[in-house]
Amino acid sequence: MSRNDLTDDEGDSAGISRRDFVRGLGAASLLGATGLSFADDGMDGLEAVDDPIGSYPYRDWEDLYRDEWDWDSVARSTHSVNCTGSCSWNVYVKDGQVWREEQAGDYPTFDESLPDPNPRGCQKGACYTDYVNADQRVLHPLRRTGERGDGQWERISWDEALTEIADHVIDEVQAGRYDAISGFTPIPAMSPVSFASGSRLVNLLGGVSHSFYDWYSDLPPGQPITWGTQTDNAESADWHNADYIIAWGSNINVTRIPDAKYFLDAGYEGAKRVGIFTDYSQTAIHTDEWLSPHGGSDTALALGMAQTIVDEGLHDEAHLKEQTDMPLLVREDTGKFLRASEVGLAEDADDPEKVFVMVDADGTLRRAPGSLGERDGQKDYSASIELDFDPQLSVERSVDTDEGSVAVRSVWENLTDELSQYTPAVVHEETGVGENTYQRVAREFAEADAAKIIHGKGVNDWYHNDLGNRAIQLLVTLTGNLGDPGTGLDHYVGQEKIWSFHGWKVLSFPTGNVRGVPTTLWTYFHAGILDNTDPDTAEKIRESIDKGWMPVYPEERDDGSRPDPSTMFVWRGNYFNQAKGNVALEEQLWPKLDLVVDINFRMDSTAMYSDIVLPAASHYEKHDLSETDMHTYVHPFTPAVEPLGEAKTDWEIFRLLTEKIQERAQERGVEPVEDRKFDRTIDLTTIHDDYVRDWETGEEQGLVEDKAAAEFILEHSEETNPEGSDEQITFDDIDEQPQRFLTAGDHWSSDIKDGEAYVPWQDYVHDKNPWPTFTGRQQYYIDHDWYLELGEELPTHKEGPENTGGDYPLSYNTPHGRWSIHSTWRDDTKMLRLQRGEPVVYLNPEDAEERGIEDGDTVEVYNDLGSVEVQAKIYPSSEPGTVRHFFSWEKFQYPDRDNFNTLVPMYMKPTQLVQYPEDTGEHLHFFPNYWGPTGVNSDVRVDVRPSGGDTE
């Protein structure tokens, strides 16, 4: 009915059309009172207005959208998810609720010749707001009432939760089982205050701190083996300085989204970009050339390229002589380095057995400067590797020793013999890459002015990852591509290295004594896997433990017994979901644990299998720091809103727990306990006082709040408060704008320079300081007994273990995907909508057709360890004979709660269990996240069949 259909009376009494009435209701409800009245006065009762535009707050439809995009406040924060991006975001709040986030675009530019660093971010960070108010958000303390993993919980009070945990911890410490208490939390750099919160408690308890970089198979063992460092990379802006870039197993466009612009821009500037991937990946399509080696054959390809470089004389001889072990002499009878003490050259050395020998151009034996025997420990910059003579690379001769004449050869001679095996025909057979193709790429790489390799986790997941690392590193060493802009090998796999190291370390471990443990070995040992491994590996593992090369806790007691682990705190991580061999974890390790406590903002797989879950603040509800080696900026987390429900920050949770432990210890009258290993006393009656005390200044209540802890890190780190400088970075500074670090501490291998992107290795290449290795040089020859026994003293290609998972026809791996950072965002609705919404395996069309599988079918992937039910996706970009299952789907996202890791056995390589030198271990020694056995995610065999098909 139109207005014309109304009677005059009806029209007068209404005073407004239906369209105007509806419009008025919409305006009033969305924008608040307008001053208009739609009562019986009608239209005739409205007063005339001289300035309608200025008087009426609502005039047209656009204002609906303006109001929709209005906010009350903005806070700066980021995301603590072990993402290498470490991106700063603005978080918008309206009506007390986090409403949306937006990339911050205010990173200061330090080199105008490089692409603008702004903005940084990805689609995942752009929807973290979903988590703040999500259904899976943990809002209250919860206690398990059913079996672990059943999802049966009861809500309890904070006091009840803390009291139960405190009494259990007191019982364990009083019984001398403090080393049965474990704390697992990964990656300090992603939120060092939150990392330190629980680590500080575990340290004060005398408990065990777990490694993580090796556990995830992120640690590239070839770097500590060859370079004596954990990892050191150029920041991504330096990619733009390269003339030639090889992306080797690093799917930059998927896993390095904020930094992919540098890779692309380098191409626009004329750099050649080569991609080495087993599949035609999302990064391969943006390269100038794509090489596709068979899975696990990277070592053979790299050594074939090295052979080309050496055979054609394209190597940098001066670099090899000064910076590497290539001129050092090796005894042919034992395979050991010739020591200067054997030929009378080291009488004045501190340790003559650890000084090595070269031959100069005249044939005279000379001491190699910078050897460990001439240094005070692993890092001693008072020594030098600078040469005052010209050593020979190619040496094969006899020398007179105290034992008589001994045949020796230089490392270079041994290396060239090894490389001679990698003929074009052999390399093509092993890798499937064309002979002319890989040789041309090697030639171009060697001839480029500045060549760089971006090395990814794809190489690192294989059993022989150490050999793969060493072979690929050899390419930059042979060509002298180290220490200068646009050069190097950059290995990025999360926020693996923290800049503000000292401040974080003393905050996390105030006693200075740390029971660190390699998580791979700890899990392997306590999950019963050691009892079922092959005898040779089991023997090596036991020998490593018995010799003290690798620690396992709880320690063996005086009577020969060893308690089981009893307690596990997990925070900022998803240990149970990420565990290789997680069937063994559930069946063998988890029943040994009397108490598992998870501190979490969401209900993930580890939370589901815990006993008590404590609600943690989200990333938008706390103070903390964020750092990465992809760039040289530090920026903060700040609370945009108060924690939701009963959630608390990590720092407050662990502080309150120490308060409860102290309270209950005093009530129970417990006595201090002497630590069996360290010269210290564990006193639970003062543990809260110790927790909040600033151990550097002595201030008693200096660390009550998380912001104070963040300020502590900044104040006590060389990178943000350099000694002898007037410059200092404070928390308020980074809240205003991300700040570039002022310098680099001694755990980095170069300094930060104004106007330049950070590039590693300058301390050694330019300043001539000894590399932190046994020989003081880049060390490609390892004369440890185990390496010699296994034939791995030099990089060499080996096939992986046979039939891991069983004798099945398909190779299985679990790469990182585009729609999550580890398991975070795996359960986010927006990210699920961008894919198929459930776990998927990628199959080559030939493999799928052979098995009668079509795109979208539900299939079963299986091997001897178990099976998982997932959806099949046909993926023509993959190599036949392979199955890809992008990792970190939660266990509860599978029908039977068997996830991607159900099919992955846990096994370790003995060469990663050594100490070197064997007696003192300055070069290779266990240190959390520097050296320890890595997990293995590839080298797994499976098959696939339609779900419900024949199981025979």
Commentary on this structure:
There is one protein chain. With 952 residues, the protein is an alpha/beta fold. It folds into five domains: 3-68, no CATH class; 73-118, no CATH class; 163-218 and 498-663 and 701-740, 3-Layer(aba) Sandwich (Rossmann fold), CATH 3.40.50.740; 222-316 and 417-491, 3-Layer(aba) Sandwich (Dimethylsulfoxide Reductase, domain 2); 810-946, Beta Barrel (Barwin-like endoglucanases). 27% of the residues lie in helices and 15% in strands. It has 31 helices and 32 strands. Strands 5-4-21-20-19-6-7-18 form an eight-stranded mixed sheet. The N and C termini lie far apart (72 Å). Residues 1-43 have low confidence and may be disordered.
Task: Please specify the SSE layout and strand pairing.
Layout: H1 8-14, H2 18-31, H3 52-55, H4 62-68, E1 73-77, E2 89-94, E3 97-103, H5 129-132, E4 142-144, E5 153-155, H6 158-174, E6 181-184, H7 192-205, E7 208-210, H8 222-227, E8 244-248, H9 252-255, H10 260-268, E9 272-276, E10 289-291, H11 298-311, H12 317-323, E11 329-331, E12 357-359, E13 365-367, E14 396-401, E15 404-410, H13 411-419, H14 424-431, H15 435-447, E16 451-455, H16 457-460, H17 465-478, E17 488-491, H18 501-508, E18 515-517, H19 519-526, H20 535-546, E19 567-571, H21 575-578, H22 582-589, E20 595-600, H23 605-608, E21 612-615, E22 624-626, E23 633-637, H24 650-668, E24 673-674, E25 681-682, H25 687-692, H26 706-715, H27 731-736, E26 739-740, H28 762-765, H29 785-790, E27 810-813, H30 829-833, E28 840-843, H31 845-850, E29 858-863, E30 866-874, E31 882-884, E32 940-946
Parallel strand pairs: 6-7, 6-19, 7-18, 8-9, 8-16, 9-10, 16-17, 19-20, 20-21, 27-31, 28-30
Antiparallel strand pairs: 1-2, 2-3, 4-5, 4-21, 11-15, 12-13, 14-15, 22-23, 23-26, 24-25, 27-32, 28-31, 29-30, 29-32
